[in-house]
Amino acid sequence: MTIVVAIDGPAAAGKGTLARRVAQDLNLAYLDTGLLYRATGFSVLQEQGDPSDENLALAAAQNLQPTDLENDALRHDEAAQAASKVAVIQSVRDELLAFQRRFAAEPPAGKNGAVLDGRDIGTVVCPHADVKLFVTASTEVRAQRRLKELQDRGLDAIYAQVLKDMKDRDARDSQRAAAPLKAADDAVILDTSDLDIEEVIAQAKSIISERT
Q1: Which pLDDT band holds residue 11 (cuts at 50, 70, 90)?
Q2: Annotation-wise, does 11 bind a ligand?
Q3: Is 13 labelled as part of a ligand binding site?
Q4: Known EC number(s) (predicted)?
Q5: Are residues 118 and 105 in the same domain?
Q6: 170 CB-near residues (< 8 Å, 6+ apart)
Q7: Which of 3, 23, 39, 159 could connect to 115 by a Cys-Cys bridge, CB 3.0–4.6 Å?
Q8: Is 16 annotated as a binding residue?
Q9: DSSP 3-state assignment of 78?
Q10: Same domain for 17 and 74
Q11: Torsion of CA 109, 114, 118, 122, to 10 degrees
């Protein structure tokens, strides 16, 4: 039986770290769905194209491979800007939705299941996932985490601005018309505000064990 674990939540809640560790510990395939749009946009840039061009963006999405998500360049601002351009193209969104569902249904490398993290996995991408977790934390805690992440990368950052950006992004994600950020009705809420990563992982694995 293929196990599908959907992990959703706002930025800097810890869902990515949790998803990677759960996948590793349970020998499941892992997909960071947020990188799909970055990889698509970055692919267009690599061909000297405009990510806003629907034909180019759709072709890039159609040719996307899981290994393309391993490129460290996807973490840079250039890829983020390109992602914002391809993400508004409906045909690209449809193609990447199909990519995510194929990944969940047929995990690569012969894995027995998949862990997908994002913002609409449990509600839109995999509404029938075996386990749904919604990972969250207070806005202030998440802003502190993001600040540290930026500083560790050698970037100048101010807490007040990071906090404002976090609140603005939360509002956009939760209020958008298409696939807004929200917990699925049958998701288990994991508040990581006062937990370290090992405690979160232990709780998540216990929930997955109970439900599968």
Answers
A1: confident
A2: yes
A3: yes
A4: 2.7.4.25
A5: no
A6: 10, 11, 139, 181
A7: 23
A8: yes
A9: helix
A10: no
A11: 150
Tens of pLDDT, residues 76-106: 878 888 988 898 898 999 999 999 999 999 9
Give yes or no for a contact between 147 and 61, defined as CB atoms under 8 angstroms apart: no
Q: Is 208 found in the same domain as 121?
A: yes
pLDDT at 169: 83
> How many angstroms separate the CA atoms of 16 and 2, rounded?
21
Number of other residues whose CB lies within 10 A of the CB of residue 190: 22
Q: Is 17 annotated as a binding residue?
A: yes
Cβ atoms 44, 57 nearer than 8 A: yes
Does the pLDDT at position 1 exceed 70?
A: no
Verify that 177 and 132 share a domain, yes or no.
yes
Which two tokens mark 166?
Answer: 């976090």
Q: Which two tokens stand for residue 98?
A: 């199909």
204, 190 Cβ separation under 8 angstroms: yes
Query: CB of 163 within 8 A of CB of 44?
Result: no
Domain count, the chain: 2
Do 144 and 74 have their domain in common? no
- Is 9 assigned to a binding site? yes
The domain in which residue 209 lies consists of 1-28+112-212
What is the reported pTM? Answer: 0.88
